[in-house]
């Protein structure tokens, strides 16, 4: 087989879960749009707390498309979302980025860059339930109350299984806002 005609590897072979015909990707309507260029997402996690913090899309009114604004965690007066997940069970943070989203095992089901989703009838939740079934006090019903969330960003993807979430909106530097909410995870 020619190097140039090689089929891409099956992404599900290297993922913590293997999607099947039951997984359905559904856009989340009640999540603020991340900045499509530099959302700079931050994940803060402990055993019982999980926060996802990112910059929001904020196109200046005078923007005509001929210039770019470079931002950093220290940029002042930025709109920032803090997503706090209730009853977090598991999370992933890292690749793929927006240019490699086709390598995500759910990409053929509507997953796209710079958006947020739930995965109904998630194979990841089903796999976590099977893994936990060896526990002497296992209760399958606790897994039926969990939701699989996916947030795709410019340079990364965040996924988690949790019982729900709340969003709060802030304004300031990403660094200052992260510092102000870090106590929520300890």
Secondary structure elements and pairings:
Blueprint (H helix, E strand, L loop, with lengths): L23 E4 L14 E4 L4 E6 L22 E9 L3 E5 L20 E6 L2 H10 L8 H4 L2 E6 L4 E6 L1 E9 L1 H8 L5
Antiparallel strand pairs: 1-6, 2-3, 3-4, 4-9, 5-8, 6-7, 7-8
Describe this protein with a few key phrases.
single chain, about 190 residues, alpha+beta, 5-stranded antiparallel β-sheet, 4-stranded antiparallel β-sheet, 3 helices, about 30% strand
Structure write-up:
With 186 residues, this protein is α+β, with helices and mostly antiparallel strands. The chain is 12% helix and 30% strand. It has three helices and nine strands, in the order ββββββααβββα. Strands 1-6-7-8-5 form a five-stranded antiparallel sheet, with no helix packed on it. The longest helix is centred in the last third of the chain and has 10 residues. The mean pLDDT is 90.
């Amino acid at each position: 087989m020619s190097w140039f005609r090689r089929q891409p590897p099956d992404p599900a072979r290297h993922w913590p879960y293997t999607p099947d015909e039951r997984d359905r990707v559904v856009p989340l309507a009640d999540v603020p749009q991340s900045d499509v260029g530099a959302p700079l997402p931050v994940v803060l996690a402990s055993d019982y707390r999980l926060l996802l913090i990112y910059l929001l899309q904020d196109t200046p009114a005078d923007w005509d498309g001929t210039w770019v604004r470079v931002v950093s965690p220290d940029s002042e007066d930025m709109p920032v979302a803090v997503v706090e997940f209730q009853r977090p069970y598991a999370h992933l943070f890292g690749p793929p980025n927006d240019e490699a989203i086709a390598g995500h095992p759910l990409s053929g089901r509507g997953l796209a860059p710079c958006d947020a989703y739930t995965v109904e009838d998630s194979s990841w939740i089903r796999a976590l339930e099977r893994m936990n079934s060896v526990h002497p006090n296992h209760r399958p019903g606790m897994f039926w109350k969990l939701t699989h969330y996916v947030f795709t960003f410019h340079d990364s993807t965040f996924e988690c299984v949790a019982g729900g979430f709340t969003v709060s909106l802030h304004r300031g530097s990403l660094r200052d806002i992260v510092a102000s909410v870090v106590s929520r995870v300890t």
